[in-house]
């Protein structure tokens, strides 16, 4: 089950963390994976590590904020590999500041990176998927779109809209053989959350608030990505799956 041999998977934001773990998991299931990030050097190192495990991999350096560059890079991938079967649209950006002092310019930048860029790149890839009559589109959502959190007003707004977009796209793309879903990660131990690992107060809160009383690992998200990318998930679309140890499901 979940054999992805012969399929091509593009994973944005995949030089490290959740994106890298997802690309690795997809590759170990047989997919040819295309790694994306802004730095070619970082991507080369990630690709080399995957190749040592027998994963078929290419790199596609581009910045998701540059939509024209992103679309050109996707077209180059299609020219090279012939198709894109799976998109895990994971790259995103963040800005933390209290609502009352949050600059509108930053709000618009975060909305652009976490919503507009996702829409534009995803739509472009969906055109090719529709022509081949098959595709899997998976977005990284957020539990902050399910439960509010201070100081990330733009991010929360963008991810909430992204969750809505998942449902709308599922309604529109299903007849073309494309499923569209999102994963909403909880607190996952990555380089981006490193500053919280050693925060005693935060870890006490996490132990009290998360039913499983632990941090998630990138592989926890990666396994959900493999499921949503597989042919076996053909009847699952328009869904947002929280992978968060139960954080968003209960009041504690």
Helices and strands in order:
Elements: E1 8-11, H1 17-28, E2 32-35, H2 40-52, E3 57-59, H3 67-81, E4 86-89, H4 104-132, E5 135-140, H5 153-173, E6 178-185, H6 194-197, H7 200-209, H8 218-229, E7 240-243
Parallel strand pairs: 1-2, 1-4, 2-3, 4-5, 5-6, 6-7
Helix pairs in contact: 1-8, 3-4, 4-5
Outline:
It is built from 8 helices and 7 strands. Helix content is 46%, strand content 13%. The mean pLDDT is 96.
Descriptive notes:
InterPro entries: KR_dom, NAD(P)-bd_dom_sf, Sc_DH/Rdtase_CS, SDR_fam. GO terms for molecular function: oxidoreductase activity. Belongs to the short-chain dehydrogenases/reductases (SDR) family. Pfam families: adh_short_C2 (PF13561). By secondary structure, the chain is an alpha/beta fold. The protein has one domain: Rossmann fold, CATH 3.40.50. 46% of the residues lie in helices and 13% in strands. The chain has 8 helices and 7 strands, in the order βαβαβαβαβαβαααβ. α4 (104-132) links the parallel β4 and β5 (135-140). α1 (17-28) crosses α8 (218-229) and α4 (104-132) runs parallel beside α5.
Number of strands: 7
Write out the strand line-up for the largest beta sheet, numbering strands in chain order. 3-2-1-4-5-6-7
What integer is the average pLDDT? 96
**Helix/strand order:** EHEHEHEHEHEHHHE
**Number of self-contained structural domains:** 1
Q: How does the major sheet shape up?
A: 7 strands, parallel
Low-confidence stretches: none
| Approximate strand percentage | 5-15%
Secondary structural class: alpha/beta
Shape: globular
Helix content: 40-55%
Distance between the termini: 37 Å
CATH superfamily: NAD(P)-binding Rossmann-like Domain
CATH topology annotation: Rossmann fold
């Amino acid at each position: 089950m979940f054999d992805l041999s012969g399929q091509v998977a593009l994973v944005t934001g995949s030089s490290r963390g959740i994106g890298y773990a997802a690309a690795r998991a997809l590759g170990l299931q047989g997919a040819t994976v295309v790694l994306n990030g802004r730095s070619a050097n970082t991507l080369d190192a990630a690709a080399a590590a995957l190749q040592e495990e027998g994963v078929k991999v290419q790199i596609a350096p581009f910045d998701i904020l540059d939509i024209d560059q992103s679309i050109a890079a996707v077209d180059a991938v299609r020219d090279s590999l012939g198709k894109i079967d799976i998109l895990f649209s994971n790259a995103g950006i963040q800005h933390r500041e209290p609502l009352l002092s949050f600059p509108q310019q930053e709000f618009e930048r975060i909305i652009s990176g976490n919503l507009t860029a996702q829409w534009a790149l995803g739509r472009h890839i969906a055109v090719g998927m529709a022509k081949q009559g098959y595709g899997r589109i998976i977005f990284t959502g957020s539990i902050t779109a399910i439960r509010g959190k201070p100081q990330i007003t733009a991010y929360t707004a963008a991810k909430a809209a992204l969750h809505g977009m998942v449902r709308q796209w599922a309604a529109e793309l299903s007849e073309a053989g494309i499923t569209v879903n999102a994963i909403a990660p909880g607190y996952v131990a990555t380089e981006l959350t490193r500053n919280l690992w050693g925060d005693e107060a935060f870890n006490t809160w996490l132990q009290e608030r998360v039913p499983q009383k632990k941090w998630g690992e990138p592989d926890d998200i990666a396994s959900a990505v493999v499921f949503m990318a597989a042919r076996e998930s053909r009847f699952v679309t328009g869904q947002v799956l929280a992978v968060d140890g139960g954080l968003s499901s209960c009041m504690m």
